[in-house]
Write a sequence for this structure.
């Protein structure tokens, strides 16, 4: 089981229509087979430099790979992520 | 609902007895009332600089505050965290 998350900042103005469109598009990623427990997240820690997050769980590395290669994921990166995200950090956790 | 996590690196040698003792002590934090879905985590992303993680969920800020002030949490910070953790980043997420 892999808990995949990404923390990021957006170029868009806070609470803008563009920000909303970004998260509307991100939520479509939850429909990719193998994506479990999908969440769009907002940072509330004053100690963390990243404002937003996406989080999901994959039962296996094979499902994670399938997600990465899926046309919906690739289209999201191309149409939304590349233009909107100013900096980010990915996290892939397995149980210790 | 707040998803609280912390990513960190340890001064201990990988898979050492000290590392094991650190996580054994960390698991006791799960017994603090209000701590849900407690997990000890290991990074598998080559793109993330933090090797380990702890993650938990609080139903409210009040429960989070209670955890922060709890003697078990304070003792863990004092006896284990301070000596063992070389760098860390906290993450507090709410649903977007």
């Amino acid at each position: 089981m892999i808990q995949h998350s990404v923390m990021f900042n957006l170029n868009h103005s806070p609470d803008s229509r563009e920000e909303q469109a970004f998260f509307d598009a991100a939520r479509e990623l939850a429909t990719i087979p193998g994506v479990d427990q999908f969440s769009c997240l907002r940072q509330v820690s004053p100690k963390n430099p990243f404002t937003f997050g996406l989080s999901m769980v994959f039962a296996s590395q094979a499902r994670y790979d399938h997600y990465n290669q899926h046309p919906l994921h690739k289209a999201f990166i191309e149409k939304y992520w590349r233009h909107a995200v100013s900096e980010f950090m990915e996290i892939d956790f397995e149980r210790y």
User: Anything to note?
Assistant: Chain A touches chain B through 25 residues (CB under 8 Å). DSSP finds three helices and four strands in chain A. The mean pLDDT of chain A is 97. Chain A has one domain: 2-47+69-94.
